[in-house]
């Protein structure tokens, strides 16, 4: 008898190395989106089974319901290493029980450097802080789910919560005309300072301007381009000259292009009220379609321009990207933290993010986004300090 053929064993590929969590904005190529750890609870909501996002799946459904403003990083599963003889103790408090204190401004840079040096096993890196954020409370989205409002939603599973949605005044004989996919977000110390909303669709452009008029908005922050390749991200909701949306006439008065952003000035009028309002739109055009900004100079200049425009008696600031979640959430946290620095001399990103995630689904989508906030805020503060010294 011949010897039995031995089955050849296939070589086991070496595990792929994951990117170290903790590189800063200056030396971290955000736009390349390297492998990082992410919280599966913020991957992609299953719109078919639960549009509110209570159930999640790792692969998007065949019918795309959500395109994040920055693509989801590649996730590499890392097998747990054998326990060391003297393992590093990690804090047990997570989620709702986690405690994170505000950071004094004088300690902020050192705080970031320490976070970047520590690993996930240490229990003190940015990833651990992000995972400490409790899962957002699931609120009802019954109005956004109505069949009559379906076409007004750009993404089927990004809906405003009933208790924080912007309620429009109903139009005559139109019972569902009070709906717009927009949510109130509290500021650092000012209730409803922001309105986070999606990029308008063709059927919701009129509602956008109705909301701007009703809420006495004087500042719109736009964080997406109209298209990303062949994919539409936002309908062009403003005129090149003068256009009437519903009963609101919008006229473009001025348009100035800067390095990385455009500022447009409009006047709004309703014939029956015989008065004009001024609205300024700040459109950031330098955000790459496939990631986060590589460097912060253009974004810092943009934030500065937005904050310098402070008309008296204005209502909430409207902030939108395509979904009204990713980039929108990043900008709101940055703006709110700059307010806190001005008034208290400290920064409380973790607790503000925790509160904001309870107001609109999907804001701050990954640990990478969370760390990006710290890096950008630090660079913004440094830029402001340099400007003051050179003045």
TrEMBL record:
Keywords: Hydrolase, Protein phosphatase. PROSITE patterns: TYR_PHOSPHATASE_1, TYR_PHOSPHATASE_2, TYR_PHOSPHATASE_PTP. The keyword Ligase does not apply. One of its GO terms (molecular function) is protein tyrosine phosphatase activity. Residues 1-11 have a biased composition (Basic residues). It is an enzyme of class 3 (hydrolase). Signal peptide: none annotated. Residues 1-26, 42-63 are annotated as: Disordered. Residues 300-371 form the Tyrosine specific protein phosphatases domain. It comes from the Eukaryota. Gene3D superfamilies: Protein tyrosine phosphatase superfamily. InterPro entries: Prot-tyrosine_phosphatase-like (IPR029021), Protein-Tyr_Phosphatase (IPR050348), PTP_cat (IPR000242), Tyr_Pase_AS (IPR016130), Tyr_Pase_cat (IPR003595), Tyr_Pase_dom (IPR000387). Belongs to the protein-tyrosine phosphatase family. This is protein-tyrosine-phosphatase. The lineage of its organism: Eukaryota, Metazoa, Echinodermata, Eleutherozoa, Asterozoa.
């Amino acid at each position: 008898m011949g010897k039995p053929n031995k089955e050849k064993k296939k070589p086991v590929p070496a595990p792929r190395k994951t990117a170290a969590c903790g590189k800063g904005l200056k030396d971290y190529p955000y736009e390349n989106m390297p492998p990082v750890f992410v919280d599966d609870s913020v991957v992609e909501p299953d719109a078919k089974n639960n549009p509110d996002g209570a159930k999640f799946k790792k692969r998007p459904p065949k019918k795309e319901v959500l395109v994040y403003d920055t693509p989801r990083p590649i996730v590499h599963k890392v097998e747990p290493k054998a326990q060391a003889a003297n393992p590093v103790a990690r804090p047990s408090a997570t989620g709702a029980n986690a405690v994170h204190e505000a950071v004094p401004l004088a300690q902020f840079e050192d705080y970031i450097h320490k976070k970047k040096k520590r690993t996930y096993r240490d229990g003190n890196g940015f990833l651990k802080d992000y995972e400490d954020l409790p899962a957002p409370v699931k609120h009802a989205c019954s109005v956004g789910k109505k069949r009559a409002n379906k076409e007004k939603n750009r993404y089927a599973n990004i809906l405003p919560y009933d208790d924080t949605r912007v309620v429009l005044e109903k139009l005559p004989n139109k019972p569902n005309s009070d709906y717009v996919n927009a949510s109130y977000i509290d500021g650092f110390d000012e209730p409803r300072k922001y309105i986070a909303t999606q990029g308008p669709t063709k059927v919701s452009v009129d509602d956008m301007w109705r909301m701007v008029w009703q809420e006495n908005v004087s500042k719109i922050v736009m964080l997406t381009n109209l298209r990303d390749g062949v994919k539409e991200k936002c309908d062009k909701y403003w005129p090149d000259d003068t256009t009437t949306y519903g009963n609101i006439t919008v006229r473009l008065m001025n348009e100035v292009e800067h390095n990385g952003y455009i500022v447009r000035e409009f006047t709004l009028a309703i014939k029956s009220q015989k008065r004009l309002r001024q609205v300024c739109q700040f459109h950031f055009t330098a955000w790459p379609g496939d990631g986060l900004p590589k460097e912060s100079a253009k974004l810092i200049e943009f934030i500065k321009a937005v904050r310098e425009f402070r008309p008296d008696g204005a209502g909430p600031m409207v902030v939108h990207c395509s979904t009204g979640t990713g980039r929108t959430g990043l900008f709101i946290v940055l703006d709110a933290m700059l307010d806190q620095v001005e008034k208290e001399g400290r920064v409380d990103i973790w607790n503000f993010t925790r509160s904001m995630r309870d107001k609109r689904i999907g804001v701050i989508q990954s640990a990478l986004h969370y760390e990006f906030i710290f890096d950008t805020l630090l660079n913004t503060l440094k830029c402001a300090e340099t400007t003051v010294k050179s003045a």
